[in-house]
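Inputs:
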Amino acid sequence: MSAVLRAHDLGKKYGKRWALRDFTVDIPAGHVVGLVGPNGAGKTTLLKLAAGQLTPTSGTIAVLGGRPEAEPAQLAMIGFVAQDTPVYAGLSVADHLRLGARLNPGWDAALARDRLERLGLDPRHRAGKLSGGQRAQLALTLGLAKRPDLLILDEPVAALDPLARREFLQGLMEAVAEHELSVVLSSHLVSDLERTCDYLIVLVGSRVRAAGEVEELLATHHRLTGPRRDPDRLPAGQHVVSARHTDRQSTLIIRTDAPIHDPAWSVSQVTLEDLVLAYMDEPAPAPLRPVLEVKR
Amino acid sequence: MIWLTWRQFRLAASATAAALVVLAAVLALTGPGLASGYSAGITACTRNGDCPRFFDHFFDDYQTPFLAVAVVVLILPALLGLFWGAPLITRELEAGTHLLVWSQSITRTRWLAVKLTFTGLAAVAAAGVCSLVVTWWSTPLDRSAAPGFTLMDPLVFGARGIVPMAYAAFAFVLGVTVGMLVRRTVTAMAVTLALFAAVQIVMPLAVRPHLLPAVSASFELGPENVDSFNKLSDQEFPQVILDAAIPGQRGAWVLSSRLTDPSGRVGGDGAPVTVRVSTTSGPCAPSQHSQGPGKGFDTCIAEINRLGYRQEAVYQPFERFWAFQWIETGIYVLVTAGLAGLCFRWIRRRLS
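Outputs:
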């Protein structure tokens, strides 16, 4: 199957500010992709671009092989649960299902009904009176019942308490297993993603810092602890993600494919959280400086 | 999509429909009485030959309800623009539900098309029904209306015939457009109201008079176009104030009515003009008044006409009422279509 999301030099500008730039990824289908980054990093912009709700300023993006321009066939393939899981406050739960049935040719009414029954949502309830968790579940149900190939969720659990958060993610994972969906899910908390995702994109300051399968990311990142030393003097192929120094000791998080032989370092595993925090810590890469010419 | 549009709109629609039903019921109950009072009065006055007086009395009696229903028709389009148009998109943007509905398998262009067409046609229908019942109810009063309140006059023109529907369509789409641009319901409502009011004031004052070339003509003075004729004790000559009416052109829309003196000098519009006619001897002397009621006025006016005083009038004849209705409807429809086009461009390019 083709890539679920392929982007090349993708950028989106609001006025003079780039919300996202130089975004290049190629994510194979069948993954649950976590998109993590601090607030304002461009996560929502990226997801809206993928869902066809925004048009890029520069570069190209292909979702499930097609350009995510708003046309019915492409929209039908993508389920999108926007930030804060919006629902129509004045409409009942049943009205929302009717809305889904009327606006989606591939609507799976049985799936929607069963899911809400399992969740114990009363169809006669007005959506405005639902709790945050119930509202998120309703929005997820709408996204699932249109039977998309790709489900995009923008911070679906940000406003939920820990219990509702776990229930929501559990429900999501069950649906993913059942319907063989690809999922892209954003959060500013790694812990939400740790349990669910097998692919991770770290987005900081409108640029991608790291992207790859979680296992591979964990295998190629290491924490080095040893006597204080200049991180610039590491062997080639060892990229420093973050460095902390005390008077006598240096702690580095590095990325490398090769094994580490230097006996001065004690090498330890990193967790996904360490890894993400290290990237968020890292100062933005300086723009390429022009080579200074020597004046005579 | 029509189902969703109706589902979101039915509360506002029912409220408006209920208000219109109440209005129609009140007018339906009082209309026949008004019409029979009018026809009885006409029969009586044609026997006495005193119809202008009957018109005056009849219109005076009903002036308040007449103006009230006209104002209802004039205000309804503004309300539709404010409460149907402005929130149509902003409500979705504020709640974020536009992202919910745009991520169904329907393009946002189609979503907007259905919402605009469905709700817009409802607005046109509401204004049409309102104009229809008010036009029907007011028919006897329109026939007897005093100068300034005839069908062609700005206040009444906009509350009759087909233009209210065009106003409603314009106000509604204006509300939607402003809503898309400012993205806040309350701000959008305020801006819509201000813009719509400005257009509705500029149109009759600055645009409508020029839609068809106005007729300019001069008329002799007579009871139809002289409003008042009086002499103050400290002045030598009497003063004449003209009415905004044209002899033999009942119901014309008078754009200007000025008195010119024999040398061709023009007086101000509606301002008193001193008429240099002797009031101590001749036809305008007080002694003439004793010849019988009205007689003195007629002979005096004849003398003033003989001296060369004339009414210089610019007006739009009453026969152009429907021509103006169609032209103005056409203009509003074009502007509405332009705004709708802007909405579609905006929703494709800018909004998200």
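Remarks. Chain A touches chain B through 37 residues (CB under 8 Å). The first strand of chain A starts at residue 3 and ends at 14.
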